[in-house]
């Protein structure tokens, strides 16, 4: 038998190109939250896929921002650069036939990565009816930056993912597994509780509000058959608090119910979820508040 291979694979790109969707479909598990709105992912998240031949440690990252002004966005960009330290392969994700200055910003951030480690992954090809258009698109991007592989995929339809995975395994170093074979992530249960609540809020709230909320888990207590979770939703203004609660508490109730179902699926246990909404003025631009909310752990 060939020797076992293990390595780290970072998934980077501008916001909204489908990085988190790709991670979830590559590891066959909903770990990373997804939404139609950009800037959904705020933290690096490892998704670990172990087979008899290999262990791939994928890192989903926040969408890279250009010249971020808020402390929160600077934190998100730092997460992306951390993901590139000691990396074996970088997947640069773009959206088929789309290219803008934020993609150029990613090219800039990848300039110190050896082209030997760099794969261009063109996502959302299910939206392209005339596939021949991809040729000139690929040509344009290849003129800016060199890649070891170029792989068109549809993360949602899982097209091209098996090819992508075998090319990754081909290039991973021979090394023993870093994690037990049943471990699928580096993040703890509190992290997913907070993220799944945030995902439900993002999908129900419009405009700027999703960018202005953060979740802390104040209690996480596991009994034999049930997990008790107390979550706090932090916003910046009183008006935002009333929107999140909704008329007669309807929005918050729906968010809690949907998040509870997702968490029950993930943990295979009953969840008792209680939520509160609190105001902390300008938290997204305060390093201190970000620390309190766990952004720098
Ligand atoms: N049609 C189509 N849509 C996709 C595909 N992959 C992702 N999407 C959609 O693209 C949107 C963004 O997906 P995410 O996975 O949240 O994107 P992201 O790159 O992680 O975004 P950020 O975390 O904000 O940087 C969602 O509405 C997804 O359903 C795909 O292969 N095809
Ligand atoms: Mg994401």
Mind explaining what this structure looks like?
Strands 2-3-1-4-5-6 form a 6-stranded mixed sheet, with helices on one face. Strands 7-8-9 form a 3-stranded mixed sheet. The chain has 297 residues and is an alpha/beta fold. The protein has 2 domains: 5-171, P-loop containing nucleotide triphosphate hydrolases (Rossmann fold); 189-292, GMP Synthetase, Chain A, domain 3. The longest helix is centred in the last third of the chain and has 18 residues, at 250-267. 33% of the residues lie in helices and 23% in strands. Bound molecules: guanosine-5'-triphosphate (GTP) and magnesium ion (MG). Residues 13, 15-21, 34-36, 38-41, 62-63, 123-124, 126-127, 154-156 line the site of guanosine-5'-triphosphate. The site of magnesium ion (MG) has 5 residues, from α1.
